[in-house]
Design a protein that fits this description.
There is one protein chain. The protein has a single domain (7-108), classed as Nucleic acid-binding proteins (OB fold (Dihydrolipoamide Acetyltransferase, E2P)). It has helices at residues 56-65, 118-123, and strands spanning 7-13, 18-21, 27-36, 47-55, 71-84, 90-103. The protein is 13% helix and 46% strand. It has a 5-stranded mixed β-barrel. The protein is mainly beta and 125 residues long. The longest helix has 10 residues, at 56-65.
């Protein structure tokens, strides 16, 4: 049987995604994603933080439409990188290379004091 490297995460974005472009013009967006571990009876919730990297159209979507606190589903693969820092110390990072990113909540209303009621929300569907 072949091997599989696929991960599906549902969590909240930790800080606003940072988008940049490579010299070749490809979009690259990075953000952190918080997921909670299942809680045992009487135990406290623990949060895992994942570093997510997106490329191309997925990166453009994440950079333009997502923000801190948004609930998202990330589908991708796990990868490991290491590099040597200026001080000669080896650094390692585990990243999720996202092939899909989907917002699972609505974008917060940024119109100031304008709010919608649940009845208004239902009527607009």
């Amino acid at each position: 049987m072949g091997s599989v490297n696929r991960v599906v995460l549902v969590g909240r974005i930790g800080r606003t995604p940072e988008m940049r472009y490579t010299p070749e013009g490809q979009a690259v967006t990075r953000f952190s994603l918080a997921t909670d571990r299942p809680v045992r009876a009487g135990g406290q919730s623990e949060t895992d933080w994942h570093q997510v990297v997106c490329f191309g159209r997925v990166a453009e979507f994440a950079g333009e439409h997502l923000d801190r606190g948004r609930l998202v589903c990330v589908v991708g693969r796990i990868t490991y990188r290491s590099w040597e820092g200026r001080n000669g110390q080896t650094h390692r990072v585990t990243e999720i290379i996202a092939s899909e990113v989907e917002a699972l909540d609505r974008k917060p209303n940024t119109e100031g004091d304008v709010t919608t009621s649940p009845a208004d929300d239902h009527a607009s569907r």
